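TICKET: design request
STATUS: open
ATTACHED STRUCTURE:
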């Protein structure tokens, strides 16, 4: 999966292949995924068959986490995070799944 972020409107676009993608009239480049550190880490609590994701990252209009993608190989669940609300996401647990998420100021991260 490839992740693109529009620098103008902040739209996050998840695609299955690297192809030319445009948004707001701009050609977008796929984003490198960095290893999450410090406040750019999601906190994961396992609850029965679910995972509960929270974060200590600020969620202001200007600087916030904007999405979480959870899954593996060809299938991800993508959750848009609302601005100005704490991250509070519950997802059905999947074996060997990865967590990828974005910060509107600092890029895209892989948790763990
Ligand atoms: Fe950030």
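STATUS: resolved
RESOLUTION: sequence designed for all positions
ATTACHED SEQUENCE:
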């Amino acid at each position: 999966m490839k992740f693109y972020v529009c620098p103008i409107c902040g739209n996050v676009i998840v695609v299955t292949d690297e192809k030319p993608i445009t948004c707001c009239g701009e050609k977008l480049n796929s984003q490198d995924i960095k290893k999450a550190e410090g406040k750019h880490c999601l906190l994961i609590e396992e609850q029965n068959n679910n995972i509960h994701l929270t974060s200590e990252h600020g969620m202001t209009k200007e600087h916030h986490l904007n999405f979480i993608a959870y899954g593996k190989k060809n299938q991800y669940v993508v959750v848009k995070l609302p601005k100005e609300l704490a991250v509070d996401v519950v997802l059905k647990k999947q074996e060997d799944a990865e967590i990828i998420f974005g910060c509107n100021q600092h890029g895209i991260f892989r948790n763990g």
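CLOSING REMARK: Residues 16 and 77 are 13 Å apart (CA to CA). The chain has a mean pLDDT of 94.
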